Amino acid sequence: MNKADKIFKETMIKILEEGTKDEGPRPYYPSDNAPAHSTFITHQVHTYDISKGELPIITLRPIAIKNAIKEILWIYQDQTSSLDILKNKYNIHWWDEWESKDRPGTIGQRYGATVKKHNLMNNLLDEIKKNPYGRRHIMNLWQEEDFKETDGLKPCAYETIWTVRGDYLDMSLTQRSSDFIVAGHINGMQYVALLMMVARHCGLKPGKFTHYIINLHLYDRHEDNAKLMIERESIDCEPKLILNPEKTDFYSFTIDDFELVGYESVKPQLKFELAI
Ligand SMILES: Nc1nc(=O)c2c([nH]1)NC[C@@H]1CN(c3ccc(C(=O)N[C@@H](CCC(=O)O)C(=O)O)cc3)CN21
Ligand SMILES: O=c1ccn([C@H]2C[C@H](O)[C@@H](COP(=O)(O)O)O2)c(=O)[nH]1
């Protein structure tokens, strides 16, 4: 069984058997305004060695890889939180429910807007090139002053730490909150794509990717899908994410420079009512 499928099944079993149920949750289900309760486990660590062909992608249902990577380009290349750009340039609609009231047409002073305001991406690229063995290569979207500027969902995947190890670039992602069955592998794969782009820009190879998840949860209306996915048989395949070898500049990569080959997934796709 592929590593991600094994981790996924073990994680879901752990939640169902030993998870803690929350009380008074913030999110709700839009269909009937009922509170969206979840069961969670804490401090989960998943490491994938990208240089050995490991990837955080499951075969137990299709994962929207292209949209996942487009979202990361929106945040770190476009450096904007504009929903119009997300929709018109990338045809992604999954952030629409989180439009800011203070700054309509955006998700507020968050994510890409934070990257731009603090020049996080350029600083990171410059610092890795200038001082590869520095131990301070951190990109942090958790900026309290930005939270005061506007309303908006606070970033979930909020911090990356980058380490050069010989020819390799390792990266860890800290995520405070993960709707793992919906977005766990969208988040994992999009940050692997970011690692590949940064590594290429800096003349390095992608090494290890570690995903630290502080609160990993399963919403109550997704429990049947979780049980179904535990029962599904994993497909034996070796997916590879390929980045166009001819490009090196971080800002030159587009979605067409990524190709996922050898990926197969169990159908049919499952539907999830999203907790807003
Ligand atoms: N409850 C919740 N879960 C999330 O994953 C999430 C939020 N809220 N709020 C903000 C963003 C929006 N994200 C989302 C929202 C929807 C999908 C989604 O609908 N995924 C579908 C299909 C995607 C597609 O085909 O493009 C899926 O099956 O994974 C994914 C990520 C991630 N984030
Ligand atoms: O990239 C993302 C963005 C959001 N999520 C999920 C995690 C939670 O279920 C909600 C956010 O709710 P909070 O109450 O702010 O934790 O969105 C995700 O998994 N990945």
Automatic annotation (TrEMBL):
Binding positions for (6R)-5,10-methylene-5,6,7,8-tetrahydrofolate per the UniProt entry: 179, 275
Signal peptide limits: none
Biological process according to GO: methylation
Catalytic activity: dUMP + (6R)-5,10-methylene-5,6,7,8-tetrahydrofolate = 7,8-dihydrofolate + dTMP
Cellular location(s): Cytoplasm
Pathway: Pyrimidine metabolism; dTTP biosynthesis
Active site: 156
Highest rank taxon of the organism: Bacteria
Assigned keywords, A-Z: Cytoplasm, Methyltransferase, Nucleotide biosynthesis, Transferase
InterPro entries assigned: Thymidate_synth/dCMP_Mease, Thymidate_synth/dCMP_Mease_dom, Thymidate_synth/dCMP_Mease_sf, Thymidylate_synthase
SUPFAM superfamilies cross-referenced by the UniProt entry: Thymidylate synthase/dCMP hydroxymethylase
Keyword Iron applies: no
UniProt keyword annotation of tRNA-binding present: no
Enzyme type, top EC level: transferase
Main localization of the protein described in the UniProt heading: cytoplasm
GO molecular function: thymidylate synthase activity
Gene3D superfamilies: Thymidylate synthase/dCMP hydroxymethylase domain (3.30.572.10)
Binding site for dUMP: 135-136, 176-179, 187, 217-219
Pfam family, one: Thymidylat_synt
Enzyme Commission number(s) of this protein: 2.1.1.45
Annotated function: Catalyzes the reductive methylation of 2'-deoxyuridine-5'-monophosphate (dUMP) to 2'-deoxythymidine-5'-monophosphate (dTMP) while utilizing 5,10-methylenetetrahydrofolate (mTHF) as the methyl donor and reductant in the reaction, yielding dihydrofolate (DHF) as a by-product. This enzymatic reaction provides an intracellular de novo source of dTMP, an essential precursor for DNA biosynthesis.
Self-association state and partner proteins as the record states: Homodimer.
Family: Belongs to the thymidylate synthase family. Bacterial-type ThyA subfamily.
Stated name of the protein: Thymidylate synthase
Source organism of this protein record: Romboutsia faecis
